[in-house]
Amino acid sequence: MEKDLDKLFGELKGSFDIKVPHEGHEERFIDKLNASSQKSMERKSNSWMRPLAIAASIAALLAIGFVALQNRPTHKEQLAEISPEAANTEFYFASLIEEQIKELQEESTPETQRMVDDTMNQLNKLEVDYQALEKDLLDGGNNKMILSAMITNFQTRIDLLKEVLDKIETIKILKQSNDENYTI
Question: Distance between CA atoms of 114 and 109, rounded to whole angstroms?
Answer without folding.
Answer: 9
